[in-house]
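User: Teach me something about this protein's shape.
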Amino acid sequence: MEGKLEGKRGRVEEVSYNFKIKVSDYKRVIAVADTEVHGRFHMAGSHVVSFDQAALPFGKAATWYMAPRQEDDEYASGVDDTGFLLNDLKGFKVSEAIAERGRDYYMRNKVVYISVDGTSGCAIVEGSSPYEVEFTYRGGEISGLICSCFCSGSCKHQVAVLLQLRELLELIEKHYADEYERAGYFAAVSKDALFDIVIGGRETGSFTL
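Assistant: First, the predicted structure itself:
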């Protein structure tokens, strides 16, 4: 919505036409979440993962959490290209307090979506608002790590994404290495998010396991 509900996410349960509203408060519905998900998914801990780029691309998952970007939106960002190994996060400069909050986000499955396409990665972290984290992953090294939150330095959302990415890559290497090597791509969504968004809002239909 634009107005009082701008930036909020919700589900329409019932529509009633017996009302009178102030249009400036509730101006328009800006987007409908694309909940049609098709493809082959594999279990990967707290998440499910697909190596099919059409199954759950970032653009589809983004409609579940974030308002679409407007034509007049302007973005300014700075990227620190300093690299560090994903398996040794000591190279990631972050305070212990921020690191602990990030670990808490990770443990509570706040990283609801994450994907790596070649060397480009992106994730969605559900905090007080949904935040987008972008990064480059090449040869086990992370660089170009940025987050859409207001923090000027490293943040808890980035920490959570790094921990989730490390876990997923370990599981993929152990169980699905061939699929990942062939595709050069994976997308993962938390089981809770998949059920809540794709299945939880449906009253009819069926699915096959």
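Now, about its shape. Residues 156-175 form the longest helix (20 residues). The beta strands are 42-44, 47-50, 84-85, 111-117, 120-126, 130-138, 141-147, 185-190. If you'd like, I can walk through any region in more detail.
User: That's plenty for now, thanks!
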